Amino acid sequence: NLTYQDVSNYYDLYLNTETSRYIFRILAFKVIYENTEKFGFMLDDEDLYDPLHYNTIIIDSSIADLAKFAASNNTNYKMLKYFNPWLRKESLTVGKGESYIIRLPDSLPQK
Fold it and tell me: Is 65:20 a contact under the CB 8 Å cutoff?
C-alpha cells in the first residue's frame, strides 16, 4: 500500500505485473466505451440481455440462514445471491431500526 511503500501515487507503487496493468485496461475500456462506433461496437436492442424480472421485499429482522430463506420464498440460494450480490455472508443481520430491500426472482429459470 501507499503508506508501506512511502509513496504518494499509484504510478510509484511496486505492484505485480497483472495488477499494474489495471489502470491501463480501465483507460482503454473508457476510450472504447466513449467511442463505440469508431471501434465497431454497435449494439442493437436485440443484442442486449433481457432485463431481470424480480419482486422486492423489505427485510426488517435478521435472517439466520439465507439458503432456507430462499427456499421459503420459492427460489434457491444461487438465485438469491445473483439478484442480491451485496449479500456477503450466509446470513443477514439487521440492526434495530434498520431494514434491507431484497430482490427475489419472479420465477426460477427453466432447467
Answer: no
